[in-house]
Structures are given as C-alpha cells and as structure tokens.
Amino acid sequence: MPAKKSTRAQKAAKAKKAGEPLATYRAKRDFEITPEPSPEVQLPESDHPRFVVQEHHATALHWDFRLERDGVLPSWAVPKGIPPDPKVNHLAVQTEDHPLSYIDFAGEIPKGEYGGGTVKVWDQGWYELEKWDAREVKFTLHGERVQGRYVLIKTRGKQWLMHRMDPPQDPTREPFPSGLRPMLAKKGTLPKDDGDFGFEIAWGGRRVLIYVEGGRIEVDDADGTNVSDRYPELTRLGRAVGSTEVVLDGELVALDDNDQPQPGVPPDRQDLESDSALRRAARDHPVAVMLFDILYCDGHMTTDLPYTERRKHLEALKLSGANWQTPSFHKGDGAALVRAAGGQGLPGVVAKRLDSGYAAGKRSGDWVLVAADR
Q: For residue 198, what are the domain limits?
C-alpha cells in the first residue's frame, strides 16, 4: 500500500511540474481499480457548456456539482444538495477539477479507494454563465430536475455557499418544517364502521418524528426533544431517503438477537452518555423504527391529505432496511388483525379513519388504539 501511494505522489509531482490541469484528479485514483474515467477519455464537444449533479454515497452522503469550463469540470461537494429555496443557502466545498468525461459517470467506486461508494447521476443539462471570478460564480441551470439562477460565493479556503437567486422552482413550495408534534390516538374499542378505517399494528415502542433533509436526519421524541445522538444506527436512513425532503412519523422498537422487533419494548438509552457507549448499544442492542405516516414531502405539508393519500406517499419511498420498516396497513376487518396481534404478543392495533387528516400535536378520535386480548 505505501508503495502505491508513493507511485501516485511521484506521478502527481511530474504532472504538476508539466502543468497538467488534472494532476490532482489523476494522483488520487488508480485507474486499474476504479471505474472512473481517466483524463485520457475524451467527450464530444457540446453546443452549450454542461453541468452535472451526482449523488455520491461515499463515507458521508453528498452531491457533487460540476460545471464544464476550459476543458475540465470545476467541482464542488454539496453536503445537502442543490438548494431549492432562496431562503436557505447550502455549503459547497470545492474539490479537484474532474475530466469532462466524468459528466456521464455513474457506478461503484471500490471501497478503500478515494471517494469509495456509489455514484448516481442526479441531474444534468447545460448552463448559461453570467460571471466567473475567484470569489463568485453566477449561472443559470437548464437541467431535467433543476432550472434557475444560482450563485456560488467563496467564503474562505475551499468553502463556498450555494444560493438560489430565483424564487423556488415550485411556486407552491412550503419551507421545511420544525417543531412538529405527533398525532395521538384515543383508547377505545373497534369502530362499528370498520370498513371506513385502516388498521395498523401498535408496537408499544417509543414514538418519534424523523426529519430528513439533504440526506441528514434529526430524530425528535413525542415531546420535541432531539434524541438523534441516542440512535446512531438510524443515520443510514438519511442515505436511503436521499435527496427527498420528508418528515416521517414512526415508533422505535428494540430488536432481539435475531433482529426481530420486540413488541412493547421501547428502547431506553437515556443513561448512556459517551459516544462509544451509544455506538456499542447500536451494535449490540439495535433498534428499528416502524414508519407509518408522513407529514411533509418535497416542499409540501401532507397533513391535510387523507390518510390513504399519505400512505401512498410514504410507501412510494420504499423504505425497508435493517433498522427501518414500513409495515403495511389493512382496510377493514379490524377484528381479525386484533386477534392476530394478540396471538403474536403485540399490544394491539390502531384504527385510522381512511379520510382523516393528520392533526399534529392533538389526540383525535380519528385514530383509535384498540388493545389486543391476551
């Protein structure tokens, strides 16, 4: 391994001395191992300067933003993605220039190599340049997903800010929320008109709202306390959601030795203080979150939508992993689900009126918690 690094460093030094513009890019990669294009790979010329945004699942999820200029791709890593709203700026960290051929790259960079992880093309197109100097780059993007005027402003070193200059692309866009509280169910019996209800398993765990923005998550408990650091195993949920902005409602449950949910066992890590203790708990006694509702999705509050529509939005995210699941719901026939829940040692079911909205922070008769017989 040291010999390989020495060889790359020697090649980089020679390339820099010769004035090669992509010397740093070349020095960081072994093209016999990585599928990334070498600088020798040529790309046909275009009538307009191009851009690409690549979703990069490396050590930390981020989005790489690249603009074609003078035969290379000046590049920035944007941890939270392209800002959709002028009210919110996103950090952009300048990285080495990339070859033009990288504009179409998608694939798996091997683990252990620089930037190891999955790269996907998130958006691409062409741009109009308005200004380019050492401290400011101003342009208009014409992409498949992103259109509008943007500016990159250098703050210090390699750090820049990316700012959208136009109004939001979606004129009805609502700001990403905060401080929400979960809707609560009333205890009761099975509704007589159970054909008007959807029935879900009640897990007896710990209720949480999960905010996901730019692939990063915040986990709040039912009182609004940020408990993200208590559950490090949930951070990977941000990668699964990707660039979609959502607020999810769910229930945290402990997992047994076979990674199966333990009904009625809410995870408790309140006495753990150090990061190392929390990491050990995540490894030895992991949790899972059972997701059953969505309050916000890509610029729009969903709380006024009927329950069935919210479930469609939630299920479209296809969130299923070792530490998160989207359990199904059943329309009608609540009595059968209550019996099944009791037989499996589950606390019960929650009956949710199919046409009901989400009353954040309130206890409503539109949701009824029905205890299982044991």
A: 184-371
